[in-house]
Amino acid sequence: MIEVSNLVKFYGDKRALGGISFTVNQGEILGLLGPNGAGKTTTMNIITGFLSATSGKVTINGYDILEQPELAKKNVGYLPELPPLFLDMTVYEYLEYVSELKKVPKAIKKKHIAEIMQMVHIGNVSGRLIHNLSKGYRQRVGIAQTLIGNPEVIILDEPTVGLDPNQVIETRKLIASLSKRHTIIFSSHILSEVQAVCDRIIIINHGKIVADAPTMELSSRMEGNTHYLVTVEGAASAVQMPLRAIPGVNAVTVLQDKNGYLQLDLMTNGEMDVRKSIFFTMAKLHIPIIEFRSMAPSLEDVFTSITAPKK
Predict the structure, then answer these.
(1) CA dihedral 76, 79, 84, 89 (to 10 degrees)
(2) Does residue 161 sit in the same domain as residue 70?
(3) Which end of the chain, N or C, is less packed with Cβ atoms under 10 Å?
(4) For the segment 7-65, what is each residue's pLDDT rounded down to a tens digit?
(5) What is the spatial distance between Cα 218 and Cα 212, in angstroms, rounded to a whole number?
(6) Are 140 and 285 contained in the same domain?
(7) Would 308 be classed as within a structural domain?
(8) DSSP sequence for 57-77
(9) What's the pTM?
C-alpha cells in the first residue's frame, strides 16, 4: 500500500532523513516513533506530498507522490499535529468544503458527510462554529476531514495530544476501527498509546530507522538479561541461596520483605528458561509461590535503549 524507498531530506546543509526505506501493508496500523527532531514529521510530510524529498521515492497504492501527485493524494487523508481547521466555519460547512476540495461527487456528498460525522461522533455539533468547540471535538473534526473521500491511507500525527483520558480511549477505539477499511500511520509521543493501538512500530533516530518490528516482538528483541518478579511466602535466608544456585540465575535481589511475604527480583542471563527450575526449587523447600511473572522490557525501555545519547 505504501512504499518508501531510500528517502533523503536536507534542510540546507542539515540532514533530516538519511535514506530510510519501509513498506506499510494494507490494513496495517504502523506506529512511527522517535525523539524530537528525529525525522518523523518530515517523513509524514513527504509521504503526504506536503514536502518534497531531496532524493528517494514514495508510492501510495502504486502512485508516485512526486510524478503522480493528484492520483497519489486521492489515496491519503492527513491529520497534522495542528488540525487544519477553519474556526469561523461550522463543522458541517467545513466538512462540505473539504468534500469539494477532494471532489466528492455531489450525489453522495451529503450522505458521505453524515456517515463520517456519525463515525467520529460529531453529529451533535454539526451546526456549531469550530471556534466554540472543545479541544476534543476539534480533534474529532480533524480526524473527520481525513476520512472525506474515503482514502486508502490515513496518516495521523499526534492525534490525541491535549485530550483527556476518556477522549484518548475513544480516539484509540476509533483508530482501531478505521484499520478495517484503511491503512494507518500513527505518530505519538505517548508510547503506551502506540503500544495499545499499533500492529507494528518503526523507531527513527537522527533520520535513520533504528528499529522496525511487530509491536509484540519489539521488547523481546532487546538483548541482555531477563528479569522475573517472584513473590513467595517465606524468609530471605531460606530462599536466596537456593534460587541463586539455579543455573542461569545471575542475581537475586530482595525488593520487599513484609509480613512473611518476600518479593524478589531474579535476574537471569536470558539464554535459559529457568521458570521450571524456580518452581521445583520452591516446591522442594515447601515454600509457596504467590506471584511469578516476567518483567519484560517495556516499550519505554526499548525506546530509551535505542535512542538515548551514547555516553
Answers:
(1) 90
(2) yes
(3) C
(4) 999 999 999 999 999 999 988 999 999 888 889 999 999 999 999 999 999 999 999 99
(5) 8
(6) no
(7) no
(8) EEEETTEETTTSHHHHHTTEE
(9) 0.75
104 and 40 housed in the same domain: yes
H or E element at residue 46: helix 40-47
pLDDT in tens, 71-83: 999 999 999 988 8
Identify whether residues 146 and 184 lie together within a single domain. Answer: yes
Beta bridge partners of 183: 153
Shared domain check, 118 and 10: yes
Strand ranges across the sheet with 29-33: 76-79, 153-157, 183-187, 29-33, 200-205, 208-214
Residue with cell string 530507522? 209
Q: Hey, what's the cell of 135?
A: 479541544
pLDDT given at position 72? 92
Contacts of 221 (CB under 8 A, 6+ apart): 211, 213
State the residue range of the domain holding 144: 2-220
Judge if 242 and 278 occupy the same domain. yes
Are 90 and 145 members of one domain?
yes
Alpha-carbon span 108 to 131, nearest angstrom: 27
Across 39-43, 87-91, 107-111, least confident range: 39-43
Residue ranges with strand state E in 102-214:
153-157, 183-187, 200-205, 208-214
Return the SS3 of 227. Answer: strand
Note whether residue 306 is domain-resident: no
